[in-house]
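Dear colleague,

As promised, here are the two records you asked about, laid out in our usual form so they can be pasted straight into your sheet.

NAME FIELD: protein one
SEQUENCE, THEN STRUCTURE:
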Amino acid sequence: MDDTNASRMCPRFIVYVKAATNGETLGDCPFCQHVCMVMFMKMPENLYIVYPVNLQRKPTKFLELNPLGKVPVLEDTEMQVVVKESFNIVSYIHNIFPLPKMFVGYKGRAKDFCAEIFPMLVTLLKNKDPKLRKEHLDNLLSELSKLNDYLLSYHKTGPYLLGPNLSDLDCTLLPQLRHVLVAGHYYQNFLVPAKMVPLHMYLMHGLACKAFRRTCCPVDEIIKGWAVHKIDLIEPVKTFQLLQKPSLKHLRHKHAKP
């Protein structure tokens, strides 16, 4: 999208995100999708546009707003405010559009079980030492297991992390988990273990919700996005599979009465 097209349609809010390889749609950045999910949930669609930025050829208009050239960035054209970083953007949006609540700024127990999953994936995928692969895989599995245990033990009021409705924490975590599913499998032959039934159920609900589906990129964009790090494939992936079939018998066993 060029500067001319952006100037023709200029609602109050413009969110600048990483572009897909076609230059026209949302790319693979999970932090950009986080912001787009919250905007989709909170804001009338006629009040904002999503401006995909080619990070290899950043438009002059974008660099004037944000000389560092990082995404996401929110421009409030009415207030002449520019907000950077996904957390700050979501807080800014929430202050203007408080409903639905979405638990923006939540700092409770559930957040502790989500925070280290994506960093562990990044460490695994960027690792160049084969001797450390197992350690990094185990660390990722450990973080996913903590989340799975939380979902099993504390998650009783709905399909999402904090209850029956999508929260800001879900909007943060779901795009990151999709990278675990896609990039983890493609580059490391990693699959979320079938025995992690609560996590599988959470993913099935979360990845199917409208806010996620309307803001997610195609699978191949995630693969291309990680390719820039020149990751060595463990072995060619013959059949791409996002989720193993969970064992519902295992789920019933966990919830069986004594």
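NAME FIELD: protein two
SEQUENCE, THEN STRUCTURE:
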Amino acid sequence: MLYRCNILALVGGGSQPQYPLNKVMIWDDHQGRCIGELSFRSEVRGFRLRRDRIIVILEQKIFVYNFTDLKLLQQIETFANPKGLCDVSQASGNFVLVCLGLRKGQVRVEHYASKRTKFILAHDSRIACFALSQNGHMLATASNKGTLVCIFNTHDGSLLHEVRRGADRAEIHSLAFSPTAEWLAVSSDKGTIHVFSITSVDNPDHITSSSRLLRWTQFRLQWVDHKMSKNRTKAQKPVLRMPAVSCPDPVWLSVHCESWNNLIHLCR
């Protein structure tokens, strides 16, 4: 869905898909009909929407389209990408796109305003998940080991910080920055959600983390998740969102799974 408007993008899925798996349907819910479609030679792995762009992700290629006339603007070759990993900034006037690079563990950052491309070797192993801050200044990445989450400056590719999710291997399902990039949430197949507090985010060159708050938040969310897991299974893959609120403290964390949604309230 494009923000809170009536435009949605739909891709077929499931055992009896209503739409082909190789098409993206642009649906106007106000008119109750499809107003456009994009067809491809292979299955669509994912898509991202901005007010001015539509990004479609295939197994080894990404297409960037102009939203108003569906004109193709760019094609990007990527490493094998069965999960459809890709993210875009949402700040107006600062379009940043992040996708997989051409080698294992590498990410590609496209800065469209300055017409620059930056490659970052984020991990030695395959990329499992990544997320971009809303302003496009910071990028969080996790490998298929799932123990560390790295935070990079997207402008120069420098490593700003590393946070540890745990010592055991885990599959990272989702990463999410808060709207102000003060918080970073991480969900995994361990049945826990970790929230890391990151300070001085307005200046990425001086980013730090609060270890005391970091430990407290992890414990609280593990306890909340344990309570929810009485009726939920770990097989579900939670997708995290941090919706904008009027003030940064307290923080709301939205958790979406296949069959349920929940809104968690965090206090310092």
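A couple of things worth noting about protein two: Residues 206-235, 243-250, 257-263 have pLDDT under 50 and may be disordered. The helical segments are 211-228.

Best,
R.
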